[in-house]
Amino acid sequence: MPNQLSESTSPYLLQHKDNPVDWWPWCDEAFAEARRRDVPVLLSVGYAACHWCHVMAHESFEDAGTAELMNESFVNIKVDREERPDIDAVYMTATQAMTGQGGWPMTCFLTPDGEPFHCGTYYPPAPRMGMPSFVQLLRAVVNAWYERGGELREAGGKLVEHLRQQTGPLQETPINDDVLDSAIAKLGEEFDAANGGFGSSPKFPPSMVLEALLRHHERTGSGEAMSIVESTAEAMARGGIYDQLAGGFARYSVDANWIVPHFEKMLYDNALLLRAYAHLARRTGSQLARRVTEQTANFLLDELRTEQGGFASSLDADTDGVEGLTYVWTPAQLVEVLGEQDGAWAAEVFGVTGEGTFEHGSSTLRLLADPADAKRLDKVRTELLRARGQRPQPGRDDKVIASWNGLAITALAEAGVALGRPQWIDAAVDAAELLLAKHMVGDRLRRGSRDGVVGAAAGVLEDYGCVAEALLALHQATAQPRWLGLARQLLDIGLERFGNHDAAGAFYDTADDAEALAARPADPGDNASPSGASALTNALLTASALAGDSSGGRYREAAELALSRAGALIARVPRFAGHWLTAAEAMLAGPVQVAVVGAVDDPARAELLSTAAEGARAGAVVLAGEPDTPDVPLLADRPLVDGRPAAYVCRGYVCDRPVGTVAELREAMQIAVA
């Protein structure tokens, strides 16, 4: 019989609906049942594209004997970390405090009041490499609960108090040139000059750090910052972490050389990388960056777009339980699809060897260098992609997450402007309309939806920040005032409901009226995606340059206060403060505002806008529309000049005279970003 997950909107929970485990979703009733039975809660947290989550499910949660023990001794709760990042954050912090590390699947044992007393991650079905089996662990916890229950409850209470202390706000640290220069220097020290990126293995794409380094180069002219960006971007784009046939990046590389990926593809990774590559292509004219931008945008539209116009969360790492099955090749398989000559040529171009770079003699595809025959490469890609389409395909987690869709909307809108692709802007508008139609319930955001049905989980701070930034990107791309108005609504809620009113500039990840957890999470660090606080801060800075009234100053002040709380984080661990660095660069560089006025079909306006988009640097805002548009602050009271389109450039609240030619605009923008 299906357990209590069968009505969920989460694909991850639905993967477990037929387990013999009597799973509960996270709810008050589950904890009430644990209190009634006086048994501990077993909390299992994962996500749909997680390889080891699938492994543990097959080994343990589908096993009748293991399930019987779980059902007899525990109330079992299954949580999708992507749907409930607040729950995940609380118990991940507990897991890291207990074990020194964390990850998914996450396995926590809680008192009926939700206090954790033992935490871990994956447990095998039999003892392995010093780990107990899952069944051994279950029995040990049961024995401890009945023999030392009071001690466990006391330990859980002490840990919760520790967690609450850990979420205190950081001390204020002023942000200035010295702080940012020091952070960039620290990134340079941690940079892997041989392979690109940072650290050794596993190696994750440093998307937000790349964006910050680009902005630092634009603001200061730093050659070192640009060198790190260009070498890392090329190494990733040519490596196995990048899908050389269909575009899109995998979650991370298991090696330091970007050869073998962990094959899951996440929406947030690809949205953030799309933005970074689009900005790199705009700044340098790199054909490789432009190609990756095109292909990654197409990946979002072709493989992650849902019927409702939003973007699905991820593609699985596994296909039919085998990691990488869809994506890897042998030389013989290339010959089978392409014939002898093209197959041998493709093996050389894509680094497919007889020994293999992956498992069982198979290889990931890498583009070691652009071959001279571009048409042949396109033909080979097309044939291999067609053949790959006949293979079993990875599953798709098709829930729509508000914050990740916000990242995708921002990236598509900005890339669409930068590369002149209006269809990407149209897709961004469609996704935003879905969020407004389904995720906005009253004046508040919900976290997720699936098949057009909104979930019950409340939006967290990253949802408000990322969606607000997305709406501001659409305001710039379309000049429609409604996007600015809606963004300001979200920002006002973010400031009112998520702010730490005892520490100006600090934020919690959950609203003041959200469900009370064991501790109220407040993690300022950027990780795989922006933290809620850094997302809101970036949006506040952008809004301050677009609002044009007293609220603009209020948003700027709030952003500066938030950045002062992140100063210590930026200085100590800049790799985990990439989105904060992005905001800090924009704060020191601006605000820079460029308004282009003229009729929409006037070629002179189009030329000015193209020049402004090309020259926009370090978080500048650019907007084009009809002259004297009263409900668009950047266009209000800005007429044509001598009856012709004009551009207005302002920096630091001081404006130059309007200009009417491309040459004059280039000069004005160079002055504006000097």
Protein described:
The mean pLDDT is 94. The protein folds into four domains: 156 residues, Glutaredoxin, CATH 3.40.30.10; 242 residues, Glycosyltransferase (Alpha/alpha barrel), CATH 1.50.10.10; 65 residues, no CATH class; 81 residues, Glutaredoxin (3-Layer(aba) Sandwich). It is built from 23 helices and 21 strands. The protein has 674 residues and is α+β, with helices and mostly antiparallel strands. The relative contact order is 0.09.
Rg result:
26 Å
Which spans have pLDDT < 50 for at least 5 consecutive residues? none
Number of domains: 4
Task: Please count the beta strands (DSSP E, at least 2 residues each).
Answer: 21
Give the termini distance in whole angstroms.
68 Å
Q: What is the CATH topology of the largest domain?
A: Glycosyltransferase
Strand order of the largest sheet: 1-3-2-4-5
CATH A-level architecture of the largest domain = Alpha/alpha barrel
Averaging pLDDT over every residue, what do you get? 94
Query: What coarse outline follows from CA principal-axis ratios?
Result: globular
Q: Helical proportion?
A: 40-55%
